């Protein structure tokens, strides 16, 4: 029996790796729906290849273009937020959450609500809405399987283990492209340099987050929600080789770690096939050639975004929603050359200073609070 799969963000980097795995295993998976924001050309190409039941284009202006391209095939074409919600509400065996940013939160909420298991790459949804998504998943008996490589590593380290026995969890960070650059020298660095990640090939937003190391801070929040652990139990360390993705230290002194080549196909295939494993085409690690694995403490003076996010674990969820919103605004302005690299941190901390705490007890309140925090960030940018 094939697993039915929905791929949100099919045209992105994680979407691409997911579809590669499905392509290699046509007997195991059937694609039910795929989505994109605006890349209509690639979306139409993927629709012809995988023949899903549904295709969603979020940008409403591109609907007629997509309809023209898919005029002669039997695929239901949907658009906008409504289309995305509709697709997410169609129960499948697993949904790959690979939209980047907070835009992925609502569809994930909808998918959990109908009982679909989630393979989650979209960390921003967990950072902002983990306090609702995780309890909802528990109530609906839904599995949330991490795709983010570090979290997938921890998930694998914990197979057959008990959380009561765990002293702490460490996520590894490559250190990004600016590991040997001072904060002052980073301040005016251009996007073209920040986008060049040393070990991973990823979408623009996460590449900039890796350069500021906000990504690793967001990942500690993501881990706290995924594994139900507090701030004192999760931290990160720089490991430039990106071979060991995470490790768990137990009270008896044992450390269990997870190693794999830096290829997103590894964690994606694990989440897709769980509880089984797939044979996939990927580089094989030769441990005789991987001498000199380094582990370096994160320098908070050099990368203040890491600690800013890490400190929010266990605080009121409004702070994480606001941090995520401010960071999305900052990264987008930076990519448009409208904000200096060093001001990404400034914009985030100023936004956190200005918010008022509200109640975030349903998904609409989280969405409204995200908009509120974005408005504050935009008003701060005007005065920077
Ligand atoms: P990409 O930018 O490569 O892809 C994002 C995907 O989401 C695209 O399909 C894009 O469509 C779609 N999308 C973007 N914005 C919206 C929106 N507002 N509404 C609907 N769809 C949208 O990102 P990545 O694949 O790199 O990352 C996806 C998520 O996975 C992120 O949360 C990231 O943090 C996480 N992640 C990524 C890793 C990686 O290796 N890339 C590793 C670990 C986690 P379109 O193509 O049309 O713009
Ligand atoms: Mg990661």
Strand order of the largest sheet: 4-3-2-1-5-6-7
Helix content: 40-55%
Category from helices, strands and their pairing: alpha/beta
Strand content: 15-25%
Number of strands: 11
Can you give the mean pLDDT? 97
Low-confidence stretches: none
Global outline: globular
Largest beta-sheet details: 7 strands, parallel
**Spatial separation of the terminal alpha carbons:** 57 Å
Ligands (ions, cofactors included)? NADPH dihydro-nicotinamide-adenine-dinucleotide phosphate, magnesium ion
Q: Nearest-angstrom radius of gyration?
A: 20 Å
Order of SSEs: EHEHEHEHEHEHEHEHHHHEEEHHHHH
H/I helix tally: 16
Describe the structure.
This protein has about 375 residues and is α/β, with parallel strands linked by helices. It is about 45% helix and about 15% strand. The protein contains 16 helices and eleven strands. The strands form two sheets. A seven-stranded parallel beta sheet has the order 4-3-2-1-5-6-7, with helices on both faces. It is globular and about 55 Å long. The mean pLDDT is about 95. The structure holds NADPH dihydro-nicotinamide-adenine-dinucleotide phosphate and magnesium ion (MG).
Entry summary:
The chain is built from 16 helices and eleven strands.
Question: What's the arrangement of secondary structure elements?
Answer:
Layout: E1 3-8, H1 13-24, E2 29-36, H2 40-50, E3 54-57, H3 63-69, E4 76-79, H4 80-88, E5 94-97, H5 105-113, E6 117-120, H6 123-140, E7 144-146, H7 149-157, E8 166-173, H8 183-186, H9 191-194, H10 204-212, H11 214-227, E9 234-238, E10 244-250, E11 255-259, H12 265-273, H13 304-310, H14 317-335, H15 343-354, H16 363-383
Parallel strand pairs: 1-2, 1-5, 2-3, 3-4, 5-6, 6-7, 8-9
Antiparallel strand pairs: 8-10, 10-11
Helix pairs in contact: 1-12, 4-5, 5-6, 6-11, 6-14, 10-14, 11-13, 14-15, 14-16, 15-16
Bound molecules: NADPH dihydro-nicotinamide-adenine-dinucleotide phosphate and magnesium ion.
């Amino acid at each position: 029996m094939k697993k039915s799969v929905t791929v949100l963000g099919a045209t992105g980097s994680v979407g691409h790796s997911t579809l590669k795995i499905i392509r290699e295993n046509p007997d195991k998976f059937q694609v039910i729906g795929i989505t994109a924001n605006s890349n209509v050309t690639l979306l139409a190409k993927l629709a012809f290849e995988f023949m899903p039941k549904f295709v969603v284009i979020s940008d409403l202006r591109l609907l007629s273009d997509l309809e023209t391209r898919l005029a002669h095939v039997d695929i239901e074409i949907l658009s906008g937020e409504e289309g995305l919600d509709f697709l997410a509400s169609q129960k499948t065996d697993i949904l790959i959450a690979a939209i980047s940013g907070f835009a992925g939160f609502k569809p994930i909420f909808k998918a959990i609500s109908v009982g679909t298991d989630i393979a989650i790459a979209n960390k921003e949804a967990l950072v902002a809405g983990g306090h609702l998504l995780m309890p909802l998943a528990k109530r609906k008996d839904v599995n949330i399987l991490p795709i983010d490589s570090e979290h997938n590593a921890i998930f694998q380290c914990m197979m057959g283990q008990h959380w009561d026995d765990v002293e702490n969890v460490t996520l590894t960070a490559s250190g990004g492209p600016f590991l040997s650059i001072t904060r002052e020298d980073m301040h005016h660095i251009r996007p073209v340099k920040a986008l060049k990640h040393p070990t991973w090939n990823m979408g623009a937003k996460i590449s900039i987050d890796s350069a500021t190391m906000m990504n690793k801070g967001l990942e500690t929040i993501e881990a706290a929600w995924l594994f139900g652990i507090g701030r004192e139990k999760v931290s990160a360390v720089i490991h430039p080789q990106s071979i060991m993705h995470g490790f768990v230290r137990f009270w008896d002194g044992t450390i269990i770690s997870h190693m794999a080549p830096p290829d997103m196909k590894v964690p994606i295939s694990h989440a897709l096939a769980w509880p089984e494993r797939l044979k996939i085409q990927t580089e094989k690690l030769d441990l005789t050639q991987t001498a000199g694995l380094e582990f370096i403490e994160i320098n908070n003076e050099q990368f203040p975004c890491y600690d800013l996010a890490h400190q929010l674990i266990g605080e009121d969820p409004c702070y994480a929603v606001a941090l995520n919103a401010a960071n999305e605004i900052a990264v987008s302005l930076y990519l448009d050359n409208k904000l200096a690299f060093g001001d990404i941190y400034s914009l985030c901390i100023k936004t956190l200073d200005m918010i008022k705490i509200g109640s975030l007890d349903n998904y609409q309140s989280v969405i409204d609070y995200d908009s509120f925090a974005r408005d504050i960030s935009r008003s701060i940018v005007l005065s920077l």
